Amino acid sequence: MDHADSRWLPHRPHVSSPASRYRRCSGPASVSDLTPAGFGYRSGVGDANPPEGTDSAGRHERAVPHLTEGELLAWRGMLELEARVLVALDAELREKRGVSISEFDALYQLWIKPGCRCRMKDLANRLLVSRGGATKLIIRLEKRGLVRRISQSGQQAVTAELTPEGESVLADAMDTHFDGVRRLVISRLEPGELAMLRRIAERLRDDAPD
């Protein structure tokens, strides 16, 4: 499964916004499938007095180099949460809208750019897939009429552009995707926790190597 960061903010005032069609579906949803008991590199030894690094579910880790148990639990928790949520969001998009989460991200990344277009090199740096996979992804979307590639004589740079059909598909997909984001993540966190999550993401993103 491809991994992603959180870049999905459905707003761009200078274009006719597909997000205006976004509707938040009502009704509670179960998220038990995202958090089954006992995931992670837990040890099999029970402990009536869990160590400081043990999480709220009683899981604790075996010793590894460089990280304390608490640090390892935080790291593994972040990876496992991302993987499980992305799998759930991808499955909903495929079932209801016929696009994968990687395809959705490609359409979205074009949509937030001025004129709904972006150089392929820059687009590849922002997608959920590898650089090599980005070209295959855009070609696949181009065959479906959702994206067009534009090249100019004498210039090596190729630009990808979102088509009207691609924008329509994205509008419907955003309804499904962002409802899932709210249902599986946002609704389960307090405002202060969301603010902290945003600060953590910004700090790690700013310090990450290119």
What does it look like?
The chain starts with about 70 loop residues before the first helix and ends with a helix. The chain has a domain at about 65-205: Winged helix-like DNA-binding domain superfamily/Winged helix DNA-binding domain (Arc Repressor Mutant, subunit A), CATH 1.10.10.10. Helix 1 crosses helix 5 (about 165-185). It has 6 helices and 3 strands, in the order ααβααββαα. It has a 3-stranded antiparallel sheet. The chain has about 210 residues and is mainly α. Strand 2 (about 145-150) and strand 3 (about 160) form a beta hairpin. It has helices at about 70-95, 100-110, 120-125, 130-145, 165-185, 190-205, and strands at about 115-120, 145-150, 160. Helix content is about 45%, strand content about 5%. The model is unreliable at about 1-50 (pLDDT under 50).
Keywords:
6% strand; three-stranded antiparallel beta sheet; 6 helices; disordered N terminus
CATH topology of the domain at 66-207: Arc Repressor Mutant, subunit A
Runs in which pLDDT lies below 50 for 5 or more consecutive residues are: 1-50
Give the integer mean of the pLDDT values.
Answer: 78
Distance between the termini: 21 Å
Question: Portion of residues in helices?
Answer: 40-55%
Task: Let me know the largest β-sheet.
Answer: 3 strands, antiparallel
Structural category is mainly alpha
Identify the CATH class of the domain at 66-207: Mainly Alpha
Order of strands in the sheet with most strands: 1-3-2
How many DSSP E strands? 3
Report the CATH superfamily of the domain at 66-207: Winged helix-like DNA-binding domain superfamily/Winged helix DNA-binding domain
